[in-house]
Design brief:
This protein is α+β, with helices and mostly antiparallel strands. The protein has 10 helices and 27 strands. Among the domains are: 84 residues, wza like fold, CATH 3.30.1950; 82 residues, Outer membrane lipoprotein wza domain like (Outer membrane lipoprotein wza fold like, Roll); 81 residues, Outer membrane lipoprotein wza fold like (Roll). A 5-stranded mixed β-sheet has the order 9-8-12-10-11, with helices on one face. It has a 5-stranded mixed β-sheet with strand order 14-13-17-15-16, covered by helices on one side. It has a 5-stranded mixed β-sheet with strand order 19-18-22-20-21.
């Protein structure tokens, strides 16, 4: 079949009314053979050779074949015929109101309201999808709601057009937003009386992970007083909505419980029977984590346990950045107040400034690791009853066999641990402090994360005039750090001994060694 604007595949309905301009395909065979394409003239008739004029205008498509058969039968006998609609007339319709391209359109006689509206570009941004009026001779024939078609696939309200019909797009109605955990976040147009439940259906309903117990609503009319209100579902699902309201559906996966009620995802590595990631009960402790991982192996060095926590790392990062800013300020203040009276002093000052800049650049590259010092004793056989947090990591190392000596010594390195040796013995193995070493600031990082220094003890030795930690018995995994002497007028106050700050802020021995290079 054919339409007024070209070939179409849509069958002509049986109740289609034949009108002037339509084409009728007539095929006769038997006592008479004919293949005819007949146009209905302005008087509503077709002319069949040797039969004459037949009035067909106003006849239903279903009644067309019997009508023509009776008229041909008055002239011929023993024949058969087939009647079909050919190319249909074009009709003119008016698309008015808030359409993208309002105006006069010529469409097929089989076109519907939706087809004409789509040819006009559909409703504009200010046009309604829910109030599309079909008017014929000034009378309202139908009101079309495009949401029936777009959301439910229902086009039962769509109507065939006639010549001279008007398709009017009204202004957009009240609009609300639906966002969050829904299948299709939308800005939906509401009809009077529609409620939260209707808006949710327009957004495709809840997503698979939605929290179906509550919805947040931000009302435009209440933004000056109470910005957001939370409603309970399904109790408040019939609550009304107004222009500009925004509904937010929460995701159940984003619901945050109190820390005490959260399941903890932690990782246990090292000398345990089953290293890996585990989900722990809300009140689980470090001891529980070890048991869940199958317990310790025979080679576990519990004293050297390394426990890191994300919340601690964030705090360390904040404090570390603050310490670096203070350090940089102190350097700048000391440099600006330093007086120079010769070219040698100028060169020395510039060299100190360059050295200071390089040091700060190296320090900025370091990142805290979030380690929590567990303060274990060398003979400890269990971890503290510390409650776990989500993201915690616990590493149980094997027992180390060395003691490290780094910094301003003649031969930095790791030396085999021997029973009965003191920290001073290992410093001697490294050749002792160099001439430029800051002996009063020597400190030791123990495997359990603790730091000890000469400032904490009394006596007189390599360890400074106020310390004698060189006599302390060395433990496996100890690291002796010997800082380089620096001009105190260009450095941080002695109360802020920088190397100890580095370790206490979770940068570890590797970070300190990097800064000392």
């Amino acid at each position: 079949m054919a339409g007024g604007l070209g070939e179409i595949s849509t069958p002509v309905p049986s109740d289609y009314i034949v009108s002037p301009g339509d084409e009728i395909l007539l095929l006769l065979w038997g006592s008479v053979d004919a293949d005819l394409r007949l146009i209905v003239d302005r008087t509503g008739r077709i002319s069949v050779p040797r039969v004459g004029a037949i009035q067909v205008s106003g006849v239903r498509n279903a009644d067309l074949a019997p009508l023509i058969e009776r008229r041909v039968g008055q002239v011929f006998k023993n024949f058969q015929l087939s009647v079909a609609m050919g190319q249909l007339r074009g009709i003119r319709v008016f698309v008015t109101g808030f359409a993208v391209k309002p105006g006069v359109s010529t469409v097929s006689a089989l076109s519907t309201v939706v087809g004409a509206l789509m040819q006009a570009g559909g409703p504009s941004s200010a046009g309604s999808f829910r109030q599309i009026d079909l008017r014929r001779n000034a009378a309202l024939i139908a009101r079309i709601d495009l949401y029936d078609l777009l959301l439910r696939g229902d086009k039962s309200t769509d109507r065939l057009l006639q010549n001279g019909d008007v398709v009017h797009v009204g202004p957009v109605g009240a609009q609300v937003g639906v966002i969050g955990s829904v299948n299709l976040p939308v800005v939906a147009e509401l009809l009077p009386g529609e409620v939260i439940d209707d808006a949710l259906r327009m957004a495709g309903g809840f997503s698979a992970v939605a929290d179906r117990s509550r919805v947040a609503i931000e009302r435009l009319s209440e933004r000056a007083e109470q910005r957001v209100t939370q409603l309970q579902l399904p109790t408040d699902v019939r609550s009304g909505l107004s222009q500009g309201d925004v509904l937010r559906i929460f995701s159940a996966t984003e619901a945050v419980l109190s820390t005490q009620r959260q399941t903890k995802r932690i990782r246990v590595d090292g000398e345990v029977q089953r290293p890996g990631e585990y989900l722990m009960r809300p009140d689980s402790t470090l001891h529980d984590a070890i048991q869940t991982a199958g317990g310790l192996t025979s080679g576990a060095f519990l004293y050297g346990s390394q426990f890191t926590r994300e919340s601690v790392r964030a705090t360390q990062q904040e404090n570390y950045e603050r310490a670096l800013r203070d350090m940089e300020t102190d350097f700048a203040r000391a440099s600006s107040s330093q007086r120079v009276s010769s070219s040698d002093q100028v060169a020395q000052s510039q060299a100190q400034a360059a050295s200071t800049t390089r040091l700060i650049e190296r320090l900025r590259e370091l990142q805290p690791n979030g380690r929590v010092v567990l303060q274990l004793s060398p003979t400890a056989n269990d971890l503290p009853l510390l409650v776990l947090e989500d993201g915690d990591r616990l590493y149980i190392p094997p027992k180390p066999t060395t003691v490290g000596v780094f910094g301003s010594v003649f031969n930095s390195g790791s030396y085999l641990h021997g029973d009965g040796r003191t920290l001073e013995d290992y410093l001697r193995l490294a050749g002792g402090p160099t001439k430029g070493a800051d002996r009063s600031s020597i400190f030791v990082v123990r495997s359990n994360g603790q730091v000890i220094s000469g400032r904490q003890r009394g006596g007189d030795s390599w360890w400074g005039s106020s310390g004698s930690i060189g006599e302390v018995k060395a433990e496996p995994g100890d690291t002796v750090v010997v800082p380089e002497e620096m001009d105190r007028t260009t450095f941080v106050q002695s109360a802020k001994d920088w190397s100890q700050i580095l370790y206490q802020l979770g940068l570890g021995v590797a970070g300190i060694a990097s800064a000392l290079k």
